[in-house]
Amino acid sequence: MKPSRSFRLMLAPVAAAFLISPAAGNAHEGHKKDMSEAEMAQMEMQDKSAAHHGNANAMHDAMKKGELDGTAMPTVAPQTAEQALAARIAENRVTSTSDFLGRLHPVAAHFPIALLLLAALAELMLAVRPSLGLETTVRFLVGGGAIGAFVAAVFGWFAGGWRLEDRSETLGLHRWNGTAIAGVALIAAWLAFRARNRTLLRVLLAALAAALVLQGYHGGEMVFGPNHLGLE
User: What pTM value is reported for the model?
Assistant: First the structure.
């Protein structure tokens, strides 16, 4: 039996969402160490300060060695692009199985986001026009999204560390909001396949859509830093 036209139309944006979704970076090292936002900002400033002092010390050493005559710059060999890339690759090597599983979280997170948001959209279209017959489409999207959300949540716990409290407010919100999304998505999937009354399913899908937007914002705060949208 050929899939309905409406089903094929719903699959198109799913594929597009997967193709255009960017892969977020790995969790900030400070989050892994259970640092607060203030401590991470302080660490970043200290790193910049250390780099500045390192350059100043190199200049001072060059002057002492007679490499600076008052007009010429010291002949300090800069690091090549290839050397910088090799150093970054070495720095990012996997250190353990849990470290590797945590690194899969950004990749896994995109699938449930796309599927569950499209499930909410499909259910909205079904509520407006029941004749579209999107019940099977909703089941497919919610079921796939629920499985993906569960997997992404597990990987997220590996990425953020297995603890119940976080000193970072952003990480704590991201952790528990993501865990709640996985749980609610599983309930929504059960309702999509079992329930005849779709009211509760629609409420849960609307809540999931809002939670996913919030989750994406918190993820951006973790990867790019506080006020990553520049609105404050």
Answer: 0.73
